[in-house]
Amino acid sequence: DAGVTQSPTHLIKTRGQQVTLRCSPKSGHDTVSWYQQALGQGPQFIFQYYEEEERQRGNFPDRFSGHQFPNYSSELNVNALLLGDSALYLCASSLGSRNPNEKLFFGSGTQLSVL
Amino acid sequence: AQTVTQSQPEMSVQEAETVTLSCTYDTSENNYYLFWYKQPPSRQMILVIRQEAYKQQNATENRFSVNFQKAAKSFSLKISDSQLGDTAMYFCAFGTYNNNDMRFGAGTRLTVKP
Q1: Mind listing the pLDDT tens digit for each residue in A21-59?
Q2: Which residue, among B27, B78, B20, B77, has the nearest Cα to B53 in the 3D structure?
């Protein structure tokens, strides 16, 4: 049983560019959450997708957007990249029918470097 | 707003000994979850242990146990018989029943020495 998979594992972009990160949830899961983990800090909640809709959003600008597909996989898009967007981006999946925070399964993340 | 504080940026312990990691949190909620996650060099966050606030009994998972003090808003993690594989970043996290925004502390880097 595959767990949460994220691609790519590493990415280097320059300021002003746009980036798309991808996540496939654990088999049987229908909810995907995205977190940003800056160096030396804990993860910060970006948003959560359930039934192809953004269910909740954290304190992130509109440059951060997402999408969930019918197969429950998800994409995180960041436009107009800033140096401060350099971070590890983690995807977590769960079952939306229950309290989604009860048990999150995380992927290994995408390390984004903005030069 | 909910906040999570981990006051120990780094800790070390000898193999086979016991270590306790500290965490405090602030919330006005009465019902919530508390978690400890482990993040090894592979970067994947792995759930170590979970505590529901309405349960008075402290959670245990094999060598891992917590000391949950609801009134003091304290949630420490005890690792017994430490193993080299326990070397990792440990994050304390807080979640509520009606909010999907899980809050994490800044983490404690634990090194288990042979």
Answers
A1: 999 999 999 999 999 999 999 999 999 999 999 999 999
A2: B27
